[in-house]
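User: Quick sanity check before I run a bigger batch. Here is a single chain. Can you write out its predicted 3D structure?
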Amino acid sequence: MVVSRLLNIISTKGDARAKNEVPSAKKTVSENAKLDATSPPTDDDLELWDHSGFMLRSDFDDHLTHSKWGAQGWCRPSCIPISIILILIVLVVLLPLLDHTDHKHLNNWRNESEFMCMSSCKISLVESIPVGMVYDNNSVVHKSTYLTWMDLINSAESTIEIAALYWTMKREDVYPDDSARYGEYVFDALVDAGRHRGISIKIAQNAPTQSNPNLDSEYLAKKAHAEVRSLNFAGLLGGGVLHTKLWLIDRNHVYVGSANMDWRSLTQVKELGLVAMNCSCLANDLAKIFEVYWQLGKEGKVPPNWPDSLSTKINVNRTMNFTLDNNRYKSFIASSPPPLSPKGRTNDIDGILHCIEKAERFVYISVMDYFPLTIYTTKVKYWPVIDDALRSAAIDRRITVRLLISWWKHSRESEDSFLKSLIDLTNSYKNVKIEVKRFIVPTNAELDRIPFARVNHNKYMVTDIAAYIGTSNWSGDYFINTAGIGMVFEDADHNNSHSIRQQLEEIFLRDWNSPYAHSMNASCFNRLDEQTKPKINHFMQFQSHHIRA
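Assistant: Done. Predicted structure follows.
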């Protein structure tokens, strides 16, 4: 169509030019005829016309006669339309190819303008460092989870939405240790927000059990006008729990991390999370996940199709691209399990595999549990998805893999076997390197009275390309029937400085090189002091196989 229109234009211009010039030619011929009316036409008369039939010759044409545009030149005027057609054909054929070459790059950043709502965003890593744990003076330590939660509550203007596994924020919920007061400060702030400040509080939680009756959320419902919905995963999916740890404030500020609504998560358990302030794009996408929980708490069943309002355009294939503190990021939010992921949402396990597969130099992992199994099912099943990805990365691409796995009173001895099998691959071939350390939070007789404390509860991974911060432990159950969230932040520029990824790498290396990290060369039990070891050995004989944190 374009070619046709151009040809019409060329033809029209050619006709117009001919109409303007032919009368001039006729006038010249007539004047010559008057000079010698009786003279027969001569060759000189005919030479008044350009042999191209295009235009009258002039003094200027004598130059053209010997140029490329002349009648005897290599580029006659009649070639112009053909030349244009050929140029158009070349453009039509080559432009899509050129566009395809840069399509991936352009596609990655085409939607950055859509996320201008991230322009005032501030994202920070936050931690809980257990009482008694001390790092070197030069070690990096981030803002505490406690202060972060208090800031979030105080910043709320209209809404606070929390997704939680359970609630034990007061000392009488667990054990009367003085460090419980920080949990009580947070709880009191929530009560005040709902009762006196008119803040709407919504809580989506795992269904109460005998061991976790969720008395705190019940109190918030009675005294702070909170709306509480409980999810029964046995009825929803035949098993699993709501394991997400999510805060949404005014759909503008967020917290995602490993910390439960438990005072121990503020003072007795090592936690890591992320807080994002004034990040409405991020908050609104996370809000869609919260809305999934909220709907399930009301309906009590997983719908055959999730409404379009809960779908997302932000995923591993179409990331949220934004610039923060002069650092360029590509980000997306993943969730588990698949039945709870509406259209467009990346599954949590796919987000993890994506980070491993994109790594070019290293993969560092810090999680409480690591099993290539489903460990909470009636029958234990082999689930090698992450394990295979790590082995492939180490062997196929010579990626350095490091795992920092917790060791505490509730660790299973069988975990050592799977970790050692990874270590055995080191030097099986040249430059194959997988290292494993167990992280032990120091304790004493007094602290040991606090149940289910003194553990590294982190759930993150950092590579030379991306940071992954999640809410799930790494066994198959958490990705099959348990609700969780994973947030991915990729460095989109190698020149990023002090990015989220780099900060997370610093935290990992701090812990990896700390006195609390112990090599797997020796038995875990040999790494514990003599006072603690017998007690743990005795406990292992009676430990529950259904403890989730």
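Confidence is low (pLDDT under 50) at residues 16-71, 99-110, 527-546.

User: Great, the batch can go ahead then.
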